[in-house]
Amino acid sequence: MDTKYAKETRCFKVSRVFPTDVNNHDTLFGGKLMSYIDDIASISASKLCRVTAVTASTDSVDFLYPIRPTDSVSLESFVTWTGKSSMEVFVKVIREDLRSGERRIAATSFLTFVALDENNRPIPIPQVLPETEEEWKLFETAEHRAVMRRRRREESKKFADFLVTRYPWE
């Protein structure tokens, strides 16, 4: 299987925060940001494998600082680690105060995608190669996150088996 550099999967998105994008706290809706995150992460995943890549999980979204209407929101994503058919994508969210120019990391997120063939079956993907210090840090710590992800998935499956599927009105 071939390899690709992490930079080949890197994507960027910059948006202005409009009044219709904010909640009653006058900050960007978390769901709106999560939509941006999934969107850009899916592009990074597709750039690695050049086939359909589907979201297997949103492993984490950590909201660190609020994003306000006076800010722009910039997202940067890239593939940090690859398994056989799955990949981890990291998304960094930067808020920039458009008046002062101050920037902060507003959120971080890890998502897992799986590459699928035309029959929706998982297929092998290229391995990703880190180059920068940031890419190496994420690459070196990815195996631990993968182990935690597998554990959480197993716990979720057990929990789902406990839940009922009947509606309250039935």
From TrEMBL:
PANTHER family registered for this protein in UniProt: ACYL COENZYME A THIOESTER HYDROLASE, CYTOSOLIC ACYL COENZYME A THIOESTER HYDROLASE
Keyword Hydrolase applies:
yes
For the keyword Electron transport, the answer is: no
Q: What is this protein called?
A: HotDog ACOT-type domain-containing protein
Q: What PROSITE patterns does the record point to?
A: HOTDOG_ACOT
Q: Which Pfam families match?
A: 4HBT
What residue ranges are annotated as transmembrane? none
Enumerate the UniProt keywords alphabetically.
Hydrolase
